[in-house]
């Protein structure tokens, strides 16, 4: 039986490694191109250099765009956490029948394409007392709505897994008030779901382009808008930008994975 399983196991490993290599090849080629002095008519580059990375990370415009992207994404996620956690607790503990309605409402941002939403937002917030077009505040509001489905679904699954009502009843029997139980008992148990939702939302928002380009553009240049505006510059420079972006997301993923590990 084991002898029969060995060829199948070997086949599965070969397929997985082939898929991994296929996915890795474009990234490896981009990395090599970002490190090359020149690469045109040869299989391998003529030489290797870090000058494109030095030029990128010494560019004040890039650093400003990188910092602005971080501020907008973190601001939207902070707003989402502050609003969505109490809402989810109230819905699941006091009004569980509303969960079906919330599932429909929370998916509405995906029902309208970003281009259509941007046109409407330009009309509403382009002038008047709430003129926010061209400012980071309109991006924070847009990113907040985009992050809602990711956060709602991940945290809802976590709430259902921990059996919220039984956990709250046990805390009440021990003398804790509802809000004390929510902060000291329920919230620590939501760490995994919260970290997953924050990671998914941040990864999606950090690469968002349509809202940023149409609503603020160069008036509050984010990283993706900067990359689009630099498309006519050196391909080596753009490759260094792409690899730096990927490395940052990879580092963030590693940090989120470390934080998400259960403590012994």
Report what the structure shows:
It is a multi-pass membrane protein. Belongs to the binding-protein-dependent transport system permease family. InterPro entries: MetI-like, MetI-like_sf. Its main location: membrane. The protein has 264 residues and is mostly helical. It has helices spanning 2-35, 51-57, 60-93, 99-106, 108-111, 114-125, 136-162, 164-173, 178-189, 191-206, 210-215, 223-229, 235-260. α1 (2-35) packs across α13 (235-260) and α3 packs antiparallel against α10. The longest helix is centred in the first third of the chain and has 34 residues, at 2-35. It is globular, with a radius of gyration of 23 Å.
Question: Which tags fit this structure?
Answer:
13 helices, mainly alpha, single chain, globular
* Largest beta-sheet details: none
Overall tally of domains: 1
The helix count comes to 13
Q: What is the CATH class?
A: Mainly Alpha
Give me the CATH fold name.
MetI-like fold
Task: Provide the gyration radius in Å.
Answer: 23 Å
CATH superfamily membership: MetI-like
Mean residue pLDDT: 84
How far from one another are the termini? 37 Å
Element layout with pairings:
Layout: H1 2-35, H2 51-57, H3 60-93, H4 99-106, H5 108-111, H6 114-125, H7 136-162, H8 164-173, H9 178-189, H10 191-206, H11 210-215, H12 223-229, H13 235-260
Helix pairs in contact: 1-13, 2-13, 3-7, 3-10, 3-12, 7-10, 8-9, 10-13
């Amino acid at each position: 039986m084991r002898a029969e399983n060995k060829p199948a196991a070997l086949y599965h490993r070969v397929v997985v490694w082939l898929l991994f290599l296929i996915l890795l090849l474009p990234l490896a080629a981009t990395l090599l191109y970002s490190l090359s002095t020149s690469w045109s008519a040869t299989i391998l580059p003529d030489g290797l250099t870090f000058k494109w990375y030095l030029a990128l990370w010494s560019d004040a415009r890039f650093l400003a765009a990188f910092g602005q992207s971080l501020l907008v994404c973190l601001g939207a996620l902070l707003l989402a956490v502050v609003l969505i956690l109490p809402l989810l607790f109230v819905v699941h503990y006091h009004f569980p029948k509303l969960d079906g309605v919330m599932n429909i409402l929370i998916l509405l941002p995906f029902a309208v394409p970003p281009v259509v939403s941007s046109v409407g937002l330009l009309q509403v917030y382009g002038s008047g007392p709430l003129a926010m077009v061209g400012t980071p505040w309109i991006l924070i509001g847009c990113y907040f709505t985009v992050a809602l489905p990711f956060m709602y679904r991940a945290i809802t699954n976590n709430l259902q897994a921990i059996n919220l009502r039984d956990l709250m009843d046990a805390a009440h029997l021990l003398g804790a008030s509802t809000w004390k139980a929510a902060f000291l008992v329920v919230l620590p148990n939501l760490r995994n779901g919260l970290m997953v939702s924050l990671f998914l939302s941040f990864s999606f928002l950090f690469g968002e382009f349509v809202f940023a380009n149409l609503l603020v553009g160069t008036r509050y240049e984010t990283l993706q808008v900067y990359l689009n505006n630099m498309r006519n510059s050196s391909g080596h420079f753009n490759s260094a930008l792409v690899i730096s972006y990927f490395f940052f997301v990879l580092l963030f993923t590693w940090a989120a994975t470390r934080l998400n590990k259960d403590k012994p």
